[in-house]
Amino acid sequence: MKMKELREIARTWQVDARAVRSRQDIVRDIQRQEGCEPCFRTRTVCDQYGCLWREDCIGKK
Question: What does pTM read for this prediction?
Answer without folding.
Answer: 0.85
